[in-house]
Design a protein that fits this description.
The chain is mainly α. It contains one helix and no strands. It starts with 17 loop residues before the first helix and ends with a helix.
Length: about 45
């Protein structure tokens, strides 16, 4: 279990712990994929 100093974890830390870094990477990847799909759909639409 990760030790947490405060009740609510800050969204972005300068040096996030390993678990949070992985979560941030997953969210970033999902966002990037969504943007890429949106761009492709915009180009492909007549």
């Amino acid at each position: 279990m990760l030790r947490c100093d405060t009740d609510r974890m800050p969204v972005l830390e300068p040096n996030p712990p390993n678990g949070q870094k992985k979560l941030l990477l997953v969210f970033g990847t999902m966002l990037l994929i969504s943007v890429v799909i949106g761009v492709i759909a915009t180009i492909a639409s007549p």
